Amino acid sequence: MEHNSAPMNQRLWTPWFTFGVILIAIGAVLIVYRFIAGLGAVTNLSDGYPWGLWIAFDVVTGVALAAGGFAMAALVYVFNRGEYSPLVRPALLTALLGYAIAATAIVIDVGRWWQIYNPVLPQYWQGNSPLFEVSICVMIYITILIIEFVPVVSEKYKDSKKPFLRSLSNKLGPLVNKYLMVFIILGIVVSTLHQSSLGAVMIAAVERIHSLWWSPFLPLMFLISAIAVGFAVVTVESYVAARSFKRPVEKDMLARLAGIIPYVLGIYLIVKLFDLIAYGKVPLLFADWWGLMYIIEMSLLVFIPFFMLLKKSVRFDIGKLLNVSIMMIAGIILNRLNTYLFTYQPRPGETYFPTLVEVLVTAALIALLFVGYKVLASFFPVMSVSTEEK
Amino acid sequence: MSEQKQWSRRQILSLFAKGSGILMGASLFQIPGFTKLFADAVDEVPVLFLQGGCCTGCSVSLLNSVSPTIQDVLLGEILPGVSLSTLWHSNVSAAQGHQVMDILDDVKARPKGSFVLVMEGTVQTKDDGIYCGFGERGDKHYTMYEHILDLAPNAMAIISMGTCAAFGGIPAAPPNPTGSKSVKAVLDEHGIDTPVVNVPGCPPHPDWIIGTIATVLIGGLGAVDVDQYGRPKAFFGTLIHDNCPYRGHFDAGRFARDFGEKGCMYELGCKGPVTHSDCPHRKWNGGVNWIIGAGHPCMGCVEPFFPFGDNIFERVPIHFATAPATYPPIVTERPSKVSPVVTGVLGAAAGAAAGAALSKKKKPAESTVKEKEE
Amino acid sequence: MSVNRRTFLKATAAGVGGGMLATQQATAARPRKALDTDISMLNDCTKCIGCRACQSRCKETHGLERSGTDPRYNMPVDLSGRTLTLIKMHKQDDFFTFVKKQCLHCGDPSCVSVCPVSAFEKLDNGVVSYNKNACIGCRYCMIACPWDAPTFEYDKALPVIQKCDFCKDARLAHGLDPACASACPAGAIKYGKRGDLIKEAHARIRENPEKYNDHVYGEHELGGTSVLVLAPKEVRFEDLGYKLYGDTPPFRLQEDIQHGIFKYFIPPVALYAVLGFIAYANRRKDNDATKKDDKKG
User: Taking the alpha carbons of A10, A16, A20, A21 in that order, is the dihedral positive or negative?
Assistant: First the structure.
């Protein structure tokens, strides 16, 4: 299926862009300091709370939000819904940047970062660990995302004046395109594995997180919610990119995409309800503030979006659609943070609150996503354009 | 050769005993019959006190001995049945000049193992020991270095009194222009294997000196249990730190930052944690006080590093763990780390995000139109 | 782009092959439970006098000096990079109990199960050992350990995970008892084989029923641990920081899920095959439709 994409040429250095670059610069300095001085000097991590903002938000929530890439790939390439193809490359770029940033956050957070490649070495493989699976799958997936991005790059350079670039692009581009399906399907499989494994990780912490969030079905719940939110993220990202590059918003396409979300949310709701009822957790919903938190999270992520997106009037009103999408994103952030951080209480007396450095580094990584997107979409043919414009 | 005879203890006793003992009805020892009995039983070991590179502080400290008194030590009995016969001591003996040289010759001629040498101060070895001359005969000058080398092989034991004799102390501190060495170092250099017992201190407590001598006299050398520095463990076996009354302050982290402040003096350079002696128990000047009690940090004067190996007022690293005074509870309370600054930043960020999200509603319709105009 | 059937099948085959190879690595050599022949330690809280000789001797043996950032000089309040074991005190009315906190060297260790790089290993003699060359410092072991034994050196730029290593290199290798066991003046720490010490623990309870809490902690908890704890009669184990867990470690569930998902790598490959089939079928439908259009047009 053909889609037309072209690099954007909007002014890069808008005020927001500049602000983003400043945040990145601050973050870079702080990251260097973290490596020199050690984790204790820049974070409030402790033996009681070994995982804090960086793991819970940058890595876990980041991976959940970057799920749009594989969700769109599945939709367009496996289920052959070609009408959504203009959304594929932007989703791919978001996923690539999102995973790159999550991987960066991992390298910053682990203590013995110079051995971060150890999971690749066979003598250290430990198949019982979901974290092992996550690390291998994320490594494979980032490779796949890069491979999937090769056609985008080669499209730019195939007519390049530099002969080396031209010939390389003309060889690699078609080669990757020929085997693209293999990689895309592999990417979907690998994504499924690691999205669910991120849920499996917290199963080991059974005593330490609140019963409402702990479940043997955590892997399934994480996977389904990631898919649902993947579409929401694609919606928001498409809108923001369109506004940023002064392109028309693909309102119709997004409206139809949104129609898929209620199905996914429906499955998620069934799993969640089963978990609540089968394990007798319903009374917990009304027992304390955590019950309220659960209800709020489910409302943001499931209830409100489910009922709203069933209505055509909501889906085709870009403003309302965006609100619902943002609500879902807020819901999933809350869900991941609740599971990994907020409800985590290892033993009495322990507390954790991020330091300013942790917050600033996180902000820098988020800024890197936006700045990176703008730079790459300006440079490479990612954004969809009509044939006349091309 | 001197005609002056040394009055031995036995002679003095018999003198008194004959006259006054029965009349006064005094102690058992003064009953002539018993006296003779005991006189035979008592061991008398000749002790020679020499001084090298020293300040005489150790001897002055020795003179402060309260129990037994110095008179008993030098002239009478250290303990019942034990006495030492002071051959010569520079500060308390009457002999001087060539009389001393005669005494030295006497001692050198004694059979092996028949006397104890107590050395105070370092042996100064540079330039053939000329920096510590001791005596002459005719034109020949003698140095303490020579005397030590002559006397040491025949001595039963050598007691190095004071840190200078034991480890080199102050004269041996850099740049050490006199080539001062500890007694043990000199003996090792010359392959003399006479046992050396170190009783360090600057000065040593009189009890340490007398106690060591008494132990040697009563039980022989084997009775003195020494540590790796040759110091009797009876006096130098425990850390000051482990018996310090300020230990509670140390464990609780209350440190004095300046002299006169309340608390442990570790930060002021107290060497208590690495110094082995019983000063906290024994105290000084008849149990009146001791350095830490007087408000000054311990200087570690019994340790080989004294005086300048470790700066007196610099914190000493503690290499071994010692158990603290209080117990941690089962549940460790940690302070809350909620920072108002971070809360503010996060709140502002969340607010900005929410604001941006809500404001989107108004914009969408315009974009397509604008685009066409461009 | 077209789905090349051949390449698709090739990729599937590669996946299966690679997957089978991968799952080989996960098989363990020794049974996942505490054995009677494991090295073991019996910590008897009724005999502990709180002298902390064990704590000090442990530090001395491992060359660990003062406790990090704690302003009180040598006074650890909890396990840390410099404190591999410590004595904690529990006060109940006027009754004091001292309890030794340390790694319990589980028979089926959580840390071994969750570590992504096999940095933790249950040795044949029963010691749970740590390999810093494998460790990436992800700290998952700290999330998983029910007794919070692994600690992380947050204050170092080149950190490691620290926990009691049963003196395996410093003392066991030389035929000596662990440092803490040899330091204890009150006989509260006894070193021996697990089978023997369990018998002894029960014997102590039997012979002094009014003195002991009738439970040998570590005998069955989470698959059994090498370090066993006895408590005084009046005191509950939970109050000493030793929660009464069931017999199955929590990570077992997650492992079962993992093994289910990765059984010979079949499910992922099956998923791959299913997706591929759907894609192929959809493509075929598309091509047929285009052909029909062409014919029409």
Answer: positive
Q: Which of B332, B333, B342 sits opposite A359 (nearest CB)?
A: B342
Taking contacts as CB-CB distances below 8 angstroms, the residues of chain A near B374 are 246
Smallest CA-to-CA distance from C261 within A192, B289, B238, B14 is with A192
% of chain A at pLDDT higher than 70: 98
Answer whether A186 sits within 8 Å of C113, measured CB to CB: no
CATH code of the region A52-346: 1.20.1630
Q: Where are the domains of chain C?
A: 5-26+255-289, 39-249
Do the chains contact at B319 and C65, CB–CB below 8 Å?
A: yes
> What's the rounded mean pLDDT across residues C110-121?
93
Q: Domain coordinates of chain A in residue numbers?
A: 15-44, 52-346
**Residue of A31, A132, A223 to mutate when probing chain C, most C C-beta within 10 A:** A132
Angstrom CA distances, B370 to A247, B89, C120, stand at 10, 113, 62
- Chain segment A16-72, per-residue pLDDT in tens: 899 999 999 999 999 999 999 999 999 999 999 999 999 999 999 999 999 988 888
pLDDT at C26: 47
DSSP annotation of B127 reads G
Residue intervals in chain B for CATH 4.10.480.10:
238-328
CATH fold for the domain made of B238-328: Cytochrome-c3 Hydrogenase; Chain A, domain 2 (4.10.480)
DSSP assignment string, C112-152 = HHH-TT--EEE-TTS-EEE-TTT-----HHHHH-TT---EE
| C39-249 fold | Alpha-Beta Plaits (3.30.70)
The minimal CB distance from A351 to the residues B337, B345, B374 is found for B337
Within 8 A of B250 by CB-CB distance, chain C residues are 73
Nearest Cα to Cα of residue B160 among B288, B256, B35, B50: B50
> ipTM of the assembly?
0.91
Residues 255-294 of chain C whose Cβ lies under 8 A from any Cβ of chain A: 255, 257-259, 261-262, 268, 271-272, 275-276, 278-279, 282-283, 285-286
Q: Determine the length of chain B.
A: 374
Q: What is the CA radius of gyration of chain A?
A: 21
Per-residue pLDDT of chain B (374 residues; tens, 9 = 90+): 344 456 666 666 655 544 443 444 334 334 444 444 444 444 577 889 999 999 999 999 998 888 778 887 777 777 777 777 888 999 888 888 889 999 999 999 988 888 889 999 999 999 999 999 999 988 889 999 999 999 999 998 899 999 999 999 999 998 999 999 999 999 999 999 999 999 999 999 999 998 898 888 777 778 889 999 999 999 999 999 989 999 888 877 788 989 999 999 998 999 998 899 999 999 998 889 999 999 999 999 999 988 877 788 888 877 655 666 678 888 887 777 788 888 888 888 888 877 777 765 544 443 333 333 33
Both tokens of B266, joined, read 């570790």
- Whether C74 sits inside 8 A of B330 (CB atoms) is no
Cβ within 8 Å, pair B367-A46: no
The fold of B42-233 is: Rossmann fold (3.40.50)
Per the listing, tokens 């079905």 go with: A217
Is the Cβ pair A207, C157 closer than 8 Å? no
Tell me, yes or no, if B334 comes closer than 8 A to chain A by beta carbon: yes
Residue entry with tokens 């007694």:
B183
User: Any CB–CB contact under 8 A between A174 and chain C?
Assistant: no
